[in-house]
# Entry
Amino acid sequence: MEIRRLSTRATLVAVAAVTTTMLFAPTQAAQENLAAGAGLLPANARPGECYAKVMVPAQYKSIEEKVVTAEASEKIEVIPAKYEWSEVKVPVQQASEKLIAVPAKYEKVEEKIEIEPAHTVWRLGPGEKAKEVGDRDLAMALALDLPATAKPGQCYNEFYQPAKFETKTEKLLKTAAAEEITTSEPQFEWAEEKVLVKEASEKIIEVPARYEEVTEKVLESPAYTTWKKGRGLNESIDNATGEIMCLVEVPAKYTEIKKRVLKTPASTKKIEIPAEYKTVRVQKLVKPSAENRKPIQAEYQSVEKRVKISDAKVGWELAGMSGAGKPTGKTYCLAAVPAKFKTITKEVVKEPATIKKVSVPATYKTIRMKKLVSKAAEKRIPIPAKYQVVTKQRKVSEARLEWRQVLCETNTTRGLVVQIQRGLQKAGYNPGPIDGVLGGTTLSAIDAYQRKNGLPTGGLTIQTIERLGVKLGS
# Structure
């Protein structure tokens, strides 16, 4: 369906004609015309009112929008590595050990050796003062069963056979076996060695960010369509008025803004700084200190001892006890004779020979060295994005054709037109002569005023008249 915009004057004439027909010629033909136009005219119109289908323009709202003109980025500050001079001890002779022979220590000790073991003897009566029974008499007593199990202090009346001893020579230790230890000196040789004088580190180089400027189109007002008078035969013709009307598209309007865009972000590059060395002469251990051990034989001495080879025998009964036979009148008492000892002097090892390890400390040379205190680092400083405020027009309603009440010949007076012309003049629009006639100049001023103020166009609507400050009926 083609939508056509009627001019103000054509609308007034057409509406007036329809109204006149409705009021004064309600013939069968008029009724058919009204039925044919059902739905094309306003439903609740009252006598004396005029209507026209006018173009209500699209409604827009101005909004402010922030657009990026320079993207956020980073600035990198390189913090160089820090060094400090210090004195470092460098070994010129390695630490080693020296072996020192510690000879054995001896001491003289006195040892009490038994030269005659403890034994018992038979005496002619109790007590130490009693004489010892002679060998012959004792032998006879033992042959007569003087008890061998007699205990010292017991007395018997029998014979006694004394114990037998023999002298033996025994070898005793005089000086214990030991070791004689000697040592050799460690051997060194000179050599050249690399010594670290500056540690390896890293250097950080800043690679700045790269930007490029781009142009961006920002929508200022969107495209829309409107009706305009046509100029050629190929354009549609309004059958009611004979005017040619065209629906044309008004292109969108754009504003170009320049902005700075980050192409490559800032970064850093690490460069290795090698360590520095210095050649120094040092003594290195070739052969460590060694030990030689030589055994020392033990020395002995000979000592004579009396060794018992047989015990004394008794054959008598215990004194005071009745025994077989008659007592001989001899009382033999077994007495304990303590062992005899001899003190000898001998040398014994108090502390054996050992090896003592003496640490020979390393020899150092002091040199100046550049030491790394802190590594090179980077500090990233954020650069915020830059923005520009751009005003845009946002469409809130589409353009449309609506029936609106307008002035027509039935309700237009010269005085009312004069007020409209004065209102246009006051608003800054040229209506032509103030003559109370709706001429072409006045109609052009009305159209310009409506477009500038976003009012429906295509007819002199009551809304336009009221906006101009003109009161109807005055």
Notes: The first strand starts at residue 50 and ends at 56. The helical segments are 8-24, 28-36, 135-143, 414-426, 440-452, 462-467. Residues 1-39, 230-244 have pLDDT under 50 and may be disordered.
